[in-house]
Amino acid sequence: MNETIRKKQTIRRIKIWTSVVIVALIYIWAFSGMPKMEFKPSAVQAIKAIFSGLIHPDWDYFYDPEGEDLLRTLLETLCIAILGTFISSILCVPFAFWAARNMNKYRFISSSGKFVLSVIRVFPELILALLFIAAVGTGPFAGILALGFHSIGMLGKLFGESIEDMDFSSSEALKSCGANKIQTLWFAIVPQVMPSFVSFTLYRFELSVRAATILGIVGAGGIGAPLIFALQGHKWDRVGMILIGIIVMVTIIDYISSTIRKRIV
Amino acid sequence: MDALKKRRLSLMKRLVTLIFIIVILWASSLGTEVSISSLMDGLPGMGSLFLEMLPPDWSYFSYVTEPMLETIRMAVIGTTYGAIVAIPFALLSSRNVVKWPVIYFPFRFVMNLIRTIPELLLAALFVPVLGIGDNAGIMALSVFSFGVIAKLAYESIEAIDNGPLEAMTAVGANKIQWIFYGVVPQVIASFVSYTLYCFEINVRAAAILGYVGAGGIGLYLNNTLKLFQYQRVSTIIIYTLIVVVIIDMISNKCREKLI
Amino acid sequence: MIEFKDVLKIYPNGTKGLNNVNIKINKGEFVVIVGLSGAGKSTMLRSINRLHEITSGEIIIDGKSITKARGKALLRCRRDIGMIFQNFNLVKRSTVLRNVLSGRVGYHSTIRTLLGLFPKEDINIALNALKRVNLEEKAYSRADELSGGQQQRVSIARALAQEAKFILADEPVASLDPLTTKQVMDDLKRINKDLGITTIVNLHFVDLARQYATRIVGVRAGEIVFDGPVEEATDDVFSSIYGRPVKQDEMLGAKV
Ligand SMILES: Nc1ncnc2c1ncn2[C@@H]1O[C@H](COP(=O)(O)OP(=O)(O)OP(=O)(O)O)[C@@H](O)[C@H]1O
Ligand SMILES: [Mg+2]
Hints:
The complex is a heterotrimer of chains A (265), B (259) and C (256).
Chain A: H1 3-32, H2 41-55, H3 70-99, H4 107-122, H5 125-136, H6 140-164, H7 169-176, H8 181-215, H9 224-232, H10 236-264
Helix pairs in contact in A: 2-10, 3-4, 3-6, 3-8, 4-6, 5-6, 6-8, 7-8, 8-10, 9-10
Chain B: H1 2-31, H2 36-53, H3 60-93, H4 101-115, H5 119-130, H6 134-158, H7 162-170, H8 175-209, H9 218-226, H10 230-258
Helix pairs in contact in B: 3-4, 3-6, 3-8, 3-10, 4-6, 5-6, 6-8, 7-8, 8-10, 9-10
Chain C: E1 2-10, E2 16-25, E3 30-35, H1 41-48, E4 56-61, E5 64-65, H2 71-79, E6 81-84, H3 96-101, H4 110-114, H5 120-132, H6 148-161, E7 166-170, H7 178-195, E8 198-202, H8 206-212, E9 215-220, E10 223-229, H9 235-242, H10 252-255
Parallel strand pairs in C: 3-8, 3-9, 6-7, 7-8
Antiparallel strand pairs in C: 1-2, 1-4, 4-5, 9-10
Helix pairs in contact in C: 5-6, 6-7
The structure holds adenosine-5'-triphosphate and magnesium ion (MG).
Protein name (chain C): Phosphonate ABC transporter ATP-binding protein
Domain ABC transporter (chain C): 2-246
Pfam families (chain C): ABC_tran (PF00005)
């Protein structure tokens, strides 16, 4: 073997071993501080209770003509997700154009847009919900606002990226026919970005449905509140009923949404 | 003639979709007490809340560093457990690795079932089982990561190039060798990348898991909120933002290197 | 020796891939299989190491029936047969050496190969194989850094490292340009001569077939319609295999 091969190999080895050592150190740190995983006898009981709740759910809770029932709260959850997604799908548009590199003359403008979007993204829905509760009181509206605001981060980023990938030849063609700015936007840009825009929005909707199921924990509406109450009151059959409800709803939504997404693309 | 008809039909379709969407939105807002006026009335309240949060309680930073590290630790361990369990599941869910639907359909089913439950809900379920503390959070994150990683990994296994697999069959490799020399080298980079991506999600999630009693900094968030210590709340939020941004940056760099 | 006995292959959709094929291929031969697209060349080659299962009949390799082999015995049989594919079928992200070493997994226990603990002599076998195809200095490069012709030579090295007694090559040069085509074919021919490895190659180009083969087998609609030494394979013979006169683009010379 000649020298260069050997050198190349050594460098590779060194790189690999440094990464291995770093990863190992992280793991030693992480696992050394971990509390012992101990199963109390109550744990087994709790697991049994949860499973028996899943097998014998509280069907009375499913529909109750007067008062709170599963169907109504699930619908409320769904509504929160729908409206939250709707708000963010509109609000994200200006952010997307702000963050798209090819829509701004100066690089720092689009970079600042990207930064703002990532700050929005790191705010968890739950904390936002708490803030909005302070403004509009407890209830689903706070949840809608929280989801609507949080989703701007992701939608704005994805949408901005698809604007960046856009093909401008057709907009140039339109411009050369003497179209004004709005006309170019409508005939050249909108048809191009519409499919990906709809697809991202639907994808975000799937995530928002999941998120909406937990907003109730802080009082922002939906199925989360009854779930927490049932858990705290050890009403396992009701917990089971609610879990089944959530799983079924999310599965159906995922199925519908991904079918539409496939047809669009 | 025909073109005109088609055009009319597509216009009709659009109109129907539009009306459908408007009806859904309208019905949703009826069911959820949406009111712009209450938002307008409430905005000053939100503004004063913001003011109460300022300035952040800087001295509190050092106090919450330990729970912050605990949060990261939970994310590291949870992601790792999830990734490990995801490996066999992803392999067994892939049509090109396991040829029989009897095997890959049940595995996919379990995977999709688990993916429907958000992490905070998992945490809420694990708290009564494992008690208040890190363990519930770790288990919740493990199960959640498992769902995310297994799904992404199985999709990328199904997309691999069939050629090397055929070549490994031709050299007389047994099934395990076939997987290690044909499948693994093709997907290992994206697997690690998905795991890192999941780790990013988990750090964010871990920061709020404490809210339902599953350990980490969320516990402190809950307590300070209950006691109306808003300056401390903002400290925690800012701290979380900084940590999340730094971890995202590092993780993104690593993922770029992998490709 | 490879022997086909009344081999019949019917695809699930009813297509007859091979129809009553009987042929004996002796040690050290360099056989080129020619035929139109869809004639059944790939099917014939892939039946030998059972990448495709045949419907009836039997294939005997060095006196043992691979058709009846099960489990370990089948893997053993396959270990003795190296295969070279049109699209190289290398793991692009792995190093060249690892790709070549993957040819040796049949010789070691599962655990050992999973940990990558190949004995020193295996590494030497792999490096020697690479030397034979003049790619020793690329051993630690990633496979996707190599040109197409180089990648194909790596897959030849894999078959060599496998210490195969037979090499099957399914259109090994179809995705290569004329110059690299020559290098790859020369490598195959040299290995056939030096090591006495029986080689069976599917080819599209008539002149290439004539240049390298010691024996030519013509296939049409799953049946063998010609089998004889290269000297007997005249233009008329090729026309009858193809069912029409040989076209210009079936000559490599035309491509240059
Ligand atoms: N998996 C399959 N399922 C059904 N029919 C197949 C399959 N593979 C091949 N065939 C059919 O079997 C016949 C022989 O195919 P084969 O691939 O052996 O041809 P070939 O001579 O290698 O052609 P080419 O030069 O194009 O590679 C063709 O008619 C083909 O359509
Ligand atoms: Mg073929």
